[in-house]
What we know:
The structure is a homodimer. The first copy, chain A, is an alpha/beta fold. Helices cover 41% and strands 15% of the residues of chain A. The first copy, chain A, contains 22 helices and 19 strands. The longest helix of chain A is centred in the first third of the chain and has 25 residues, at 108-132. The relative contact order of chain A is 0.09.
Amino acid sequence: MADVQRRLSNGAQRIDFAADPARYRHWKLKFDGDVATLLMDVDEKGGLFEGYDLKLNSYDLGVDIELADALTRLRFEHPEVKVLILRSGKPRVFCAGANIRMLASSTHADKVNFCKFTNETRNSIEDASENSNRPTICVVTGACAGGGYELALAADHIILTDDGSSTVALPELPLLAVLPGTGGLTRVTDKRKVRRDHADVFCTTEEGIKGKRAVEWRLVDEVVPNSKLEDVVKTRAREFAKKSNRPADLKGIALTPLQRKFAADSVEYGSVAVSFDRKARIATVILRGPKSPPPATAADMTSQGAEFWPLKLARELDDAVLDIRANELDIAVIVFKSEGEGEQVLAYDKFLDTNRDHWLAREIRLLWKRVLKRIDLTSRSLVAIVEPGSCFAGTLAEIVLAADRSYMLIGKRDGGNRPPAAIALADINFGAYPMPNGLSRLQSRFLGEAPALDAARKVIGTMLDAVTAEKLGLVTFAYDDIDWDDEIRIFLEERASFSPDSLTGMEANLRFGGPETMESKIFARLTAWQNWIFQRPNSVGEEGALRRYGTGQKPVFDTKRV
Amino acid sequence: MADVQRRLSNGAQRIDFAADPARYRHWKLKFDGDVATLLMDVDEKGGLFEGYDLKLNSYDLGVDIELADALTRLRFEHPEVKVLILRSGKPRVFCAGANIRMLASSTHADKVNFCKFTNETRNSIEDASENSNRPTICVVTGACAGGGYELALAADHIILTDDGSSTVALPELPLLAVLPGTGGLTRVTDKRKVRRDHADVFCTTEEGIKGKRAVEWRLVDEVVPNSKLEDVVKTRAREFAKKSNRPADLKGIALTPLQRKFAADSVEYGSVAVSFDRKARIATVILRGPKSPPPATAADMTSQGAEFWPLKLARELDDAVLDIRANELDIAVIVFKSEGEGEQVLAYDKFLDTNRDHWLAREIRLLWKRVLKRIDLTSRSLVAIVEPGSCFAGTLAEIVLAADRSYMLIGKRDGGNRPPAAIALADINFGAYPMPNGLSRLQSRFLGEAPALDAARKVIGTMLDAVTAEKLGLVTFAYDDIDWDDEIRIFLEERASFSPDSLTGMEANLRFGGPETMESKIFARLTAWQNWIFQRPNSVGEEGALRRYGTGQKPVFDTKRV
């Protein structure tokens, strides 16, 4: 398959991860008190790229960008919602999964980025249930296949209608010679805990499973006669809403549009600035600290809304990372820098700590957690450069800990007048932002050195200079001004000279020491195998199943088992 | 790269996994009381395939087959050994890792099989330490690079000589654009618990790390001046031997050569028979139960030696599985059957339970554990067929539980006179044979159904008919004679029609629900990424690093990060 970048159907040069509910083409959000309903009703002609129609509620990255946006808005704009109903807006089909023609014509990088983003979105559905007490009920009417069933799997409760034809299925293997790679295999075994031999039968049965057997095999939670479906959905919604401990009568904030200016070699946000050195294959992301102290009260935070610094920065950083991932494939290294006052950053962290039971403070922290995980899972070399004038403290110190390595300048720059660089830890660094493996970044860092973790805890709130930070193991290297430029230059040049693929593989291993969770298994065991299959001629070759699907020709397989 | 099978340098048609110490070409075993020394001294001209020399103690599958053999013999033939010293028999080089020219000219299947086997062998080094109280000390003199350091990582204690030039290194990424895939990345983070940013530096530093920094970064346990090396090795050996709780004065048994008869479509062992239906792409492995009751005493077991049924069967089954893996790449499905009396199998399990503190009984159980794990990790569809006359009980019931699915016949076959099929569980099925994920196969099976696990425990020792076994969830399907042949035929035909790659990926996910361990991470996160890289042009393409290594030409990379 020619690995050629496809054209966006809207004529744009970049995939845009920002969405506007007023212009959704694929989803409808309805509200009824504390119950929200998200209807999937994909516009066939609304494909992100040229060359395919999104038939039967099949989806592509564009559909998922709207879904991710809707899920985020639900959390910030509609905190009154206690339960989400996810269902189809089309008759006789729930969702046919990822669009096959889109996949068949995708570059390898497109496929991988698409799957990664959809996985992150499904994880965020589970996060809302687990951490925001806002569960999701999925109502399956009609065919629910492949990525459609994987979407259902992200819900807490799956209701399947018993109309003689509605089924759940993972037909990827028999139909396309690929895996149900959006968490499907992992959620079947680890979340639904389907018995492994039943899972084997299910995943090799193209037509799927319906009715009683779907419940017996734990594939869905209940099967309901079509005539009673709406009553049951209402009842379940009430039950789940009752179990949620979310306060009533919350009022949301508006997630106002991101302010961005794209130029040839930069993207300028309010609190984030991205610049590209495309020759050196480097993106520099500068995070700007707060310009003013935190507000006095939670009510003030709410009235600042989307302008409240931690929220603004998280949204902008998320967009910047997604933009680099999808649109800047030649970038090898993301260099993180920061500008501002570390004490101010700590003050905001303290403010969020103080208001940790306020719904908005909690949602902001959860958003940061997800953005930081997105960085962990970004297949670029990550380096933090800690210089005079930077503000890597508290929440922003997580960026240093997320980096593959970090450099910190000792003392001042020659001729510079900014005070020496300092970093600082806060309570927030010790558990509130778990990585996909379930550990904090400090725990992951000090897997073998409990004393180092204790020592780090003892300096909470202290501004640490470079020598101290290196001694405490918080940064990789501390250099003075004499060596600084050379060391960093050599590192960046060397990094760009390595094979991109081997870096992706190495970083995916070194970043996730220690335990695995269902989430990390999805991005490791499942995704790595899927990416392998996405390279194999049996699926993507000219005679492979993905290419031949729908052509009437049978795929031809190399029968060797590897 | 042309994916063409290479020629074995000994002119044989099959890779032979049986080795004979008298004909080792690459390893020397020396004994000094309770201390054994295994010297790696690779014969340059002793490559398994044609086309490369094994310079600088580099290795290929043939070298590793001898290593695996030596490690198994140590356990059975030399139980008096309490500590193993692993070191180089060559001056100035410990081990240069996997031979690069061998890798560069390998087919994808060869690479994957090679890495899997070497990983299993390194795991067995750790198993001997953990479960047989026989630790390994690795003495590094000279360059210890790539697979050489990965071998060292399997030891409990690594001593590095401080001679100014001896180093440890994982240069795979900068040199070859592949990963340290024989457990290297995982053991660095999860076993040695090297800090992730140090690991990043280490794995991108071609020349490696020596001296004090190697200790500070936890890469080795101690650095010793060359002049004191031999004294320190002796001291450490004594210390480790003292800590081992192995009894003194044990006498081993001889692992006599396997009796095998290879024919065109079969391999006949004593207790195992393999037949190939190459057109249907099926290998049938028949396991034969014991012909006589277990011996009366442990001493009798010892005098039976390698003829003792559980040991004989484990060795033969291991060889059969390895043979299929490496030499029968077109086989899609392994069908496991058994013949014999289930009660007899249970009697042997009871005998091994009773003698569980006897060194030989323990080693036999540990060998079974490793053979069963080898089956879990075999990338072929596994099916157990439970028919009249079979003996899937106790240890052999693990084969049914290891299968991707299982079929059991209800009642007798039409016209048959054998009694209906029965299976039975024993204590041994509830923990003694953990899978790579650390759970028993029953735990993995009933992840979501604790009551099912309890119900299974209640029927320990009972011969269960097909209907009962299906009800208890121990087999996938129970069919009577009317449906039996059709159901199995349809399944086998369907399985052979699927893409081999997608089956490999699916099975690797469904078999390992639940937690991950360091061992399972090596075969999942690490291996799956490595296999992906082994498909990427940046490493294996005409201009890729693996192909261009040693040619003087620099590799050319596609710079896109995926």
